[in-house]
Specification:
Layout: H1 2-24, H2 26-46, H3 54-75, H4 79-124, H5 129-139, H6 144-156, H7 161-172, H8 175-190, H9 194-218, H10 220-243, H11 245-253, H12 255-279
Length: 283
């Protein structure tokens, strides 16, 4: 009975301490939450997803992280595993969202050269700049057609072309699209042979894409090896448990073992991320 009362009092004091610390650092927490909201909303806009309830989702996710943290701390009696679980819950959704936004951007990059060729042919046929953009919005595949749909819709509603293209550049963050937009603006303001300029840009983009695909093809096996190496420690740990279950259990039940496991997990993740950076050069 006494031990239960002591555990209850300890939990109560820990909760009060956490609440006091949260109140004292409320300004910093609000600033961090604002920064996280801007970052997540930016990635969602690049994915053309709604951003109205981002802050609400972030608050709910923080509550889940806090529950998991205290659950691991009190249930498993391990502060180290609790911190690792909280960090994993904080980093994994952001990393997945970042990967999704990057893949979306890469798909647009892959479709941009063909869109440039289509527009050059439309301009050569005598169509105006606005009509050429409408053709791109109608004929281009997803996801790039959504960007052209938005540009055309905003331009038809009266927004200046320069502003629509500038907002598209900020949204896509593509160097190739920035060149394409600069050519459109130059032609719109001062005239010139727009079709020839776009064709030259399209040829440059196609050459860059060819080099990127060559690099990806030559590093595909190495990237798979990095994934296998990142997964190997978990399988080795399971296999070692069947060989020596007593010492393996000590890794989870003692402070020294938990510190070793946490250090190994952090170094494993860092090694995987480092390998991805090395195997995905920026051309």
């Amino acid at each position: 009975m006494t031990s239960n009362i002591e555990a209850l009092l300890a939990s109560l004091f820990v909760g009060m301490a956490v609440a006091a610390a949260g109140w004292a650092a409320s300004d910093y927490l609000a600033a961090a939450l604002d920064a996280a909201e801007r970052d997540v909303a930016d990635k969602l806009r690049r994915l053309r997803a709604p951003t109205r309830n981002v802050r609400k989702y972030l608050v709910v996710w923080l509550i889940i992280m806090a529950c998991v943290f205290f659950g691991c701390w009190l249930g498993l009696d391990s502060m180290i595993f609790a911190v690792l679980a909280a960090v994993f819950l904080a980093a994994t959704p952001w990393y997945l969202l970042r990967r999704m936004a990057e893949r979306h951007r890469q798909r647009i990059e892959d479709q941009l050269a063909d869109a440039m060729v289509t527009m050059a042919n439309a301009v050569r046929a005598g169509l105006s700049l606005a009509q050429s953009l409408e053709i791109l919005a109608a004929q281009c595949p997803k996801p790039i057609n959504a960007e052209f749909h938005q540009i055309v819709a905003e331009y038809n509603l009266g927004k200046p072309l320069e502003r629509t293209l500038t907002e598209a550049k900020e949204r896509l963050r593509s160097e190739n699209f920035a060149l394409f937009a600069a050519a459109l603006l130059a032609s719109h303001e001062s005239g010139g042979r727009l079709n020839e300029t776009i064709e030259r840009i399209a040829q440059s983009v196609l050459e860059l894409q060819r080099l990127e695909r060559k690099v990806l093809a030559e590093t595909a096996q190495a990237r798979k090896s990095a994934v296998y190496m990142a997964m190997a420690p978990a399988f080795i740990l399971v296999a070692y448990y069947f060989v020596d279950p007593i010492n393996t259990t000590l890794l989870f039940t003692t402070m020294a073992g938990q510190m070793l496991l946490a250090t190994a997990a952090v170094l494993n993740v860092l090694a995987y991320l480092w390998a991805r950076v090395l195997l995905n050069p920026d051309i």
